[in-house]
Each structure stands twice: as C-alpha cells, then as structure tokens.
C-alpha cells in the first residue's frame, strides 16, 4: 500500500508542535522549580493543627511544617499515616508563591502529549501499519508513554517539581530521534511484518516509560540525601530545596519499579517467543538481548536491595540508576553502535 504523504506530513507537523510545547513546559516547570518556596504556618495555625513542638511563645520545632518539612494545611495524622502510592506526609507540599507556573507546565505537557500521540497515530494511518517499525517511531512511542507515566505518577503537588527532570531526557531523546534517527514514513522490512511487533514493542515501551519515572525519582532522591531537607546553605542547597522528602522519592522510585519490572520482563519473554518463530531460537545472546538481560538483572538487584534490611535506600538508588543507564543505552543507542539481529533502526 502506498504511503499517504499528506498524513505523513501532518504527523511530522504534530511532532514538531509537541516538541515546541514540551520546551515551553520545561521552561514553565523550571520557573516553578526556581521560585519554589515552602509555605510557612503561623503559630496559631500550628497550635490549631496540633503539631508537636509548637507553642504560642516558642519557635517551631525542627521538622515541623514551619521549618519547611510539611505543607500548609497538613495535620499530624498525615505525618504518620500513608494512604496513597507515594505518601509520606508531604505529598501536598507546594510552593507558596509560584504554583501557577506548575499549572501552566502541566497544561503544556498535556497538550503536547495529545500532539505527540497524534503524530504517532497519523504515521500509523499513513503507512497502514503499527507505527513502531524504526528507531524514530520507537523513541516517539517510548517517550509518549514516559510522559503518560509522569502524568499518572506525578499528580501530587509535591511531585510536580519532578517535571524538569522528566522533560530534559524526553526532549533530548525526541531531538535526537527527530534529527539523527528520523525515517520517512514507509512500510517496514519483512522481518517486522508480524503480529508480535505491536505486542512486544508496546510492552517494552510501556515498561521503559515507567522506568524513566523510577530513574528520575532515584536521581532526585540522591540529590535530596546529598543536601538534607531544610538546609538553607551549602553547595546544592538551591537545587535540592524544592524536592520533597527523601522517603517520598524513595517510595516513588520503588513502587514505579515494582510496576515496571514485571511489564518489562513480560516484554523480554514475548520477544524471546517472537525470536523462536522468526529465527528458530528463543535466545542467542544478540547485543540487544544481552543488554536487556543485564538491565533486567540490575532492576531485580535493585528490588532485592530495596527490600533487604542490610542495604540502605541510597545504595539501592545507585543500582536503580545503573539499570536505567543500561536500559537507555540498550533501547535507544545499541542499534547505532552495534550491529545485530535487532538492527532495524531505519538508519540505512
């Protein structure tokens, strides 16, 4: 079937529009991050919510909301009871002065997400196939799911400061994919004309998108423990101050990894099934297969370390970042630097 050039052109236009909107979202989120300041509670508000260590005549105790550890409007019960995915008591902590920039950034992200999805769908309709047959399309799909994961997991006010950390790698991958890996809309090579293509690639892309949120959470966690919350001075204090409590970030990294790990594992297993039908073997230690196995082992090691009392969360976070680094290299760059059976990047 010939390619619909008109729809292909609209797909490229939607991609460029999404990229521009993501840039605006990054700028707005950086303004929110840079202008972040914790709301302070008055003495009367502190006594009213029953925060220990506060009195009408004394100053707030260390760790109280007035010291910048919890949000305005929080209660003592919120500090001890966890009721949601990443709640450690400061999920509702938000900037006292620049929350509107967080809303603007969120709006830009949502509109850009729609345009990016439109770019992927239009390319699929233009070529009459599932639109992940080359590296450009794979990056488009994976970053779309990463942004979608961000919209799901970063809803709480305290986690909105994570958007600069999410958008920077997303924009870097989109820029690299749109400039160096771009392929004209065309039919896929015969080896990819299989019903396994949308199944395998979709699952791998979903797991990878959620892993990006987990990696970002570990980066922020290491920044937070490097510069303790509440520190007003010292190298890196300005970078770390807007971040939520380290426990919040640790939980976000752990629970998103718990979700992504089985998804990615199923994607690898289904890839092995496809390999058996296409190449006559389930596993052949192809570079991409090997790197997938290494990243899977690292993520398994992270989950084990995170759940083992002998390991601290800080050491586990480094393992999580190692797994994320191998994952990024494997999914996006190994086809460029290494030739193997999975070399369908559309670069030739």
Give a description of the structure.
There is one protein chain. The chain has 348 residues and is an all-alpha fold. The chain folds into two domains: 5-38 and 99-337, no CATH class; 42-92, no CATH class. Helices cover 64% and strands 0% of the residues. It is built from eleven helices and no strands. The chain has helices spanning 5-34, 43-49, 76-80, 99-127, 135-153, 163-179, 196-226, 237-240, 246-279, 287-307, 313-337. Mean pLDDT is 78; it is low at 40-88.
Number of strands: 0
Shape: flat
Which bin fits the share of residues in helices? 55-70%
Report how far apart the termini are.
22 Å
How many domains is the backbone divided into? 2
How much of the sequence is in beta strands? under 5%
Q: Structural class, please?
A: mainly alpha
List low-pLDDT spans: 40-88
Radius of gyration: 22 Å
Mean pLDDT: 78
Reading the helices and strands in chain order gives: HHHHHHHHHHH
**Main sheet, how many strands, which sense, barrel?**
none
Number of helices: 11
Set out the fold topology:
Blueprint: H1 5-34, H2 43-49, H3 76-80, H4 99-127, H5 135-153, H6 163-179, H7 196-226, H8 237-240, H9 246-279, H10 287-307, H11 313-337
Helix pairs in contact: 1-4, 1-6, 4-5, 5-6, 5-7, 7-9, 7-11, 9-10, 10-11
């Amino acid at each position: 079937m010939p390619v619909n050039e008109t729809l292909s052109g609209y797909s490229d236009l939607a991609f460029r529009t999404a990229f521009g909107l993501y840039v605006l979202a990054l700028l707005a989120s950086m303004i929110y991050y840079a202008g972040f300041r914790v709301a302070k509670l008055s003495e009367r508000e502190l006594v009213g919510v029953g925060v220990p260590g506060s009195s009408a005549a004394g100053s707030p105790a260390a760790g109280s909301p007035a010291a910048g550890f919890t949000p305005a409007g929080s209660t003592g019960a919120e500090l001890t009871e966890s009721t949601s995915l990443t709640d450690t008591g400061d999920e509702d902590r938000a900037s006292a002065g620049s929350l509107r920039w967080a809303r603007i950034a969120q709006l830009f992200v949502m509109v850009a997400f729609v345009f990016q999805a439109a770019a992927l769908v239009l390319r699929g309709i233009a070529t009459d196939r599932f639109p992940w047959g080359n590296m450009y399309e794979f990056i488009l799909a994976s970053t779309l799911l990463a942004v979608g994961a961000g919209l799901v997991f970063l809803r709480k006010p305290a986690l909105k400061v994570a958007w600069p950390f999410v958008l920077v790698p997303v924009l870097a991958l989109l820029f690299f994919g749109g400039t160096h890996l771009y392929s004209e809309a065309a039919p896929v090579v015969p080896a990819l004309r299989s019903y396994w293509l949308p199944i395998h690639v979709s699952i791998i892309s979903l797991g990878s998108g959620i892993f990006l949120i987990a990696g970002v959470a570990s980066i922020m966690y290491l920044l937070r423990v490097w510069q303790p919350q509440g520190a007003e001075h010292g190298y890196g204090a300005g970078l770390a101050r807007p971040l939520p409590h380290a426990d919040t970030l640790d939980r976000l990294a752990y629970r998103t990894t718990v979700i992504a790990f089985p998804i990615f594992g199923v994607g690898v297993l289904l890839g092995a099934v496809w390999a058996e039908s296409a190449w006559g073997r389930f596993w052949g230690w192809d570079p991409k297969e090997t790197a997938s196995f290494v990243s899977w082992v690292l993520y398994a090691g992270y989950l084990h370390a995170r759940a083992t009392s002998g390991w601290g969360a800080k050491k586990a976070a480094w393992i999580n970042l190692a797994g994320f680094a191998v994952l990024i290299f494997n999914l996006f760059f190994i086809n460029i630097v290494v030739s193997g059976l999975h070399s369908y990047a559309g670069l030739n």
